[in-house]
């Protein structure tokens, strides 16, 4: 009973979570904030000096076996 009261006091009372933003400018700004935060974390950790490798899951035509 006390746990349910504490959850309701913290805003977890039956609303189904956090409401979605109503302003269409909010979501892109949150995405940019995430990107800036991740870039800063990589820079602080010194990861910007490491070599990056990217890959693709699409095989080259020469690697597809002929029938």
TrEMBL record:
Q: Biased composition, Low complexity: where in the chain?
A: 1-10
- Superkingdom assignment: Eukaryota
The record ties this protein, via SUPFAM superfamilies, to:
Nicotinate/Quinolinate PRTase N-terminal domain-like
Q: Which GO terms describe its biological process?
A: NAD+ biosynthetic process
Q: Gene3D superfamilies in the record, alphabetically?
A: nicotinate phosphoribosyltransferase
Q: Where is this region: Disordered?
A: 1-22
The name this protein carries in UniProt is Os03g0837300 protein
